[in-house]
Every structure is written in C-alpha cells, then in structure tokens.
Amino acid sequence: MATYPLATLACTISSTGISAPAYSDILGSLTASFQSIYGTDIYIDPDSQDGQWLATLSQMINDGNQADVTVFNGYSPTYAQGAPLSSQVKINGIRREASSNSTAVVNLVGQVGTPINNGVVQDSNQNLWNLPASVVIPSAGTIAVTATAQQPGAITAIAGAISQINTPTQGWQSVTNPLPAAPGNPVEMDAALRQRQSVSTSLAALTPLQAISAAVANTPGIGRSQVYNNPTGAADANGVPAHSIAVVVEGGNIVTIAQAVEAKKSPGTGTYGTTPETVLDPSGVPVTINLFVLSEINIFVQATLVPLAGYVSTTKTTVINALVTYLSTFAIGQDSLLGKLFGPANLSGDAATSSSSLTQQQLDALSNTYNLPISNLYQGRSDMLVTGGPYAATATVINVGNVASIASGRSILVTQSDGSQLAAVVTGVSGSAVTFTPAVAAGKTINTGAQVLVNGDLILAFNEGAQCSATNITVLP
Q1: What's the mean pLDDT in 235-254?
Q2: Is the pTM of this model over 0.70?
Q3: Co-location of 336 and 472 in the same domain
Q4: Beta bridge partners of 140
Q5: 333 pLDDT exceeds 50?
Q6: Are 329 and 397 found together in one domain?
Q7: What is the CATH number of the domain that holds 236?
Q8: Is residue 426 part of a domain?
C-alpha cells in the first residue's frame, strides 16, 4: 500500500485558481491519520467495516470539494456552467438567448408609397411569417425586410418558398425570399454564450471594427455573425471591395442589424453584401448598408466503424450525437477539416461529453469497442451533388455542382440509383467535371442529384456556415 502523509483535505485557492485533492489522496490521508491513532497493524482493508467507513468519509469530503470547485469557477465566464454562467454574463450587459423563431429576408414588391401594416406571408408548407409592423414600399418599388415565423423553433423555408401574401393589401404585389430562412435556435448553449460574452467585451472597443462586431453580435435574435474588413486599395480574396467591410449574419432583424452597422462604421467605409437595406443616419439622411445573410450549408458525414469486443449498436447513436454537436459549433466560414472530425467520431473531447452526458473515461470505454481508420471517414456538402446525369455503366466522368473540396488522389463515395455507393479515386478535376476510377459498374447508374462524399477536407466560403442534424450522419454498420 502506498504511504500517504497527513495532508490538508480541503480545497486550496492560489494565484493559479482552485485545486482539490483527488479522492485517492483523501482516502490515503484519512487512512494515515487512522493508523497514527490505532496503529499500523489495524485491519482497514476495503472489506472491513472501518475501511468502508473511511471510504464513505473520503467520498463525502471529495463531493464537498467538487461542489466548492464548481462554485468558485462559477464566478468566471470561462468556467461557469448553466445558471451561474447566465448570471455572470449580465455583467457584460448580455443575457442567455431563449429559444427563437426562424427568420427570412423577403423582398416585397408593390406600388410606390404602399403601406403594409402587420403584414403576414406564407410559405409552401403553410407556415405563416410576420412582417415588421409597418412597412412602406419605397421609390425603388421593392424593399427587403425580415419576416419572422409565427411558430418558434427550426421552421425551414428554402429560397423562393415564401411566396404567398396572407394579408392582401392594395398596392402590394408580390413577396419572395431570395435565400433560405435562418432556422430558429434552441436555448443558447454554454459554449455559444461564452463566445458571445467574449465578443461583447468589445462593445466599448477602441477600434470601429471591434465595435461593429460587438454591436452586430449583440443584436436581438442574432445567431452567428462575422465582420470582414478590407483596408487595402484593391478587392481581397473574398471579393470585398477596397476600403470596405462585409458583414455576414445568421438570423436577427435585417433592419436592426443594418442600423447597428451604420451607427458604428467609420465615415467613408463601404459595405459589401448581397442584401441591401436603407436606414437613416443621426441626421436623417438615408444610408444603404449591404449585408450577407448567412448561407447555411448542410454537412453530411459517413463513418464506417470496425466493431471490436464489447461493441453494441447503441454506440453509433453516441457517435452521431457527438458529430452533430461538433459540426453545429462551427464559426462562419470555418472549413470542416477531416482530421478534426476524427476526435468526436472517436468520442473524444467536449462535443462528445456534452452531447452524451458521459465522462471522458466512460466514453473512452465505448471508443475502445470499435476502430475507425481515417480512410473510413467521409464528408460532403449539401451542394456536392451530381449534375447532368444520368451516368450509366462504364462512365468515368461525372459533373458535380461544387468541386472546391474535390482533388486528384482523394477517395470519393457517390450514391447510385439502387442505393449502393460507388467507391472511387479521383484522377482529375476540370471545371465541374470529375474523372475517377474504377468506372460505374454494369447494371449501375448515377443519377442527377446524387450525393458525393469525399475522404478529405470541406471548404466553406466566407459567407457560408456549416449546419448539421442527426439525419445528416450515417454510421455503419
């Protein structure tokens, strides 16, 4: 048996934070104290009554120490969780976001000067969306406003789905959404709140760029946001013009966001984006702010596990949840790196623990029941779809809608018309044409719209954001 000195059993607070002795150290210290009183020859093994009493006392002390650590860390936004974190961020003038409604930028077309009061529009799935309380068609004959779903939650609407006027108004002619709706969010998770708290400290920033980022990030109903700055005299790699900024937002009210940008940006700084919104400056002068509404990109993952001793089918659900949680935390423009998927797919890291409510030690035990070679891990974008088909047997070239993540030497999986997958190696990419080997087998066909997965990284544009749900993840067997 190891020898333990008599030691302090309580937590210790120092300049580096709080620490607590491990349970084994507590038990060892109590054992040493017991033996110093009754002698080293006393029988206190785990099967004895005295040994069990020492273990009970050690557990009580350890539980109390862990509660102290939790309370101490609850005073720091970096470590606080749940209710303590909700309280701490109020110091920065923000609060945890409650569940929200989906929003979509819609273009209203009508006669100049037509007022639309408490307007309601409808999508192809019969969902109703509220317009701002008061809208007036400007001189251009069209105006972009934010429509909010009447029902909370992740109400989806693809581009063009919101096209029906539910409250007819004389002079109001049509409505459409040029981009998909931003789905509503559940109650804000701790990780997202910590990130927003960090950004919020720039509300009183010294630089206009930090101030714009903070003002946008703290707009009510906002999800992810990103502000890109091009201070040079020429367009940058993202296409942002010289001396301009590009603001990319998910959710929120487009008018409120534009007002926040106008209030914080420096005079003479241009704005770049596909969604224009005209707001008034403090002097009442109209100013057009251009924004990007985030393009949501669904990420698909397929992982083929190699079962080992002790593997059970329910483990795949744990793997799926870990991957969904990981991919749902991506920042705007963040690429999905294949190597980074390897951690959650092997039930390692924060995404795995937070999605399963299991400790890392418990997850390690599950992970030890299967193997996942990196060659068995594939991912794809929702727009990595086959175009121009069908492609019959012997075909070695297909056209793909987005080939930015496909390169020579990479392995791909392509869904065939019978539900099977063609496993091939890319031998060349020219424009949208992807050449591969082996050819499509006899009796097989690849149709237009078939999903393509790649054993490699996925590239996302600066105005795109990854999203994922359990239906996007396939774990075999």
Answers
A1: 93
A2: no
A3: yes
A4: none
A5: yes
A6: no
A7: 3.30.460
A8: yes
Residues 289 and 303 in one domain: no
Q: Which of 328, 329, 336 is nearest to 457 (CA)?
A: 336
Closest CA to 414 of 424, 428, 406: 424
- Collect all residues with Cβ–Cβ distance below 8 Å to 330 and sequence separation of at least 6: 336, 460, 465, 466
- Structure confidence by residue, pLDDT tens digits, 80-126: 776 777 776 766 666 676 667 888 899 999 999 999 999 999 998 89
* Bond before 241 cis per omega within 30 degrees: no
Task: Read off the pLDDT of each residue in 16-28 and give the average, rounded to a whole number.
Answer: 85
Number of separate domains in the chain: 5
Average pLDDT over residues 189-206: 65
Pair 372, 469 in one domain: yes
| Strand bridging mode 286-293 / 295-304 | unpaired
Show the domain range for 111: 101-176
Task: Based on the fold, state whether residues 27 and 166 are members of the same structural domain.
Answer: no
Residue 440 lies in a domain: yes
Residues 367 and 389 reside in one and the same domain: no
Quick one: three-class SS letters along the chain? Answer: CCCCCCCCCCCEEECCEEECCCHHHHHHHHHHHHHHHHCCCCCCCCCCHHHHHHHHHHHHHHHHHHHHHHHHHCCCCCCCCHHHHHHHHHHHCCCCCCCCEEEEEEEEEECCCCEEECCEEEECCCCEEECCCEEECCCCCEEEEEEEEEEEECCCCCCCCEEEECCCCCCEEEEECCCCCECCCCCCCHHHHHHHHHHHCCCCCCCHHHHHHHHHHCCCCEEEEEEEEECCCCCCCCCCCCCEEEEEEEECCHHHHHHHHHHHCCCCCEEECCEEEEEECCCCCEEEEEEEECEEEEEEEEEECEECCCCCCCHHHHHHHHHHHHHCCCCCCCCECHHHHHHHHCCCCHHHHHHHCCCHHHHHHHHCCEECCHHHEEEEECCCEEECCCECCCCCEEEECCCCCCCCCCEEEEECCCCCEEEEEEEEEECCEEEEECCCCCCCCECCCCEEEECCCECCCCCEEEECCHHHEEEEC
Structure-token match 């030691």, residue found: 7
CA 305 to chain centre: 25
365 assigned to some structural domain: yes
- The CA distance from 302 to 411, in Å, is 13
* 293, 309, 344 - which closes a domain: 293
Query: Do 330 and 467 share a domain, yes or no?
Result: yes
Please tell me the distance from the alpha carbon of residue 419 to that of residue 114, in angstroms, as a whole number.
52
> Which of 293, 315, 350 is the C-terminal boundary of a domain?
293
Question: Would you state the pLDDT for residue 1?
Answer: 44
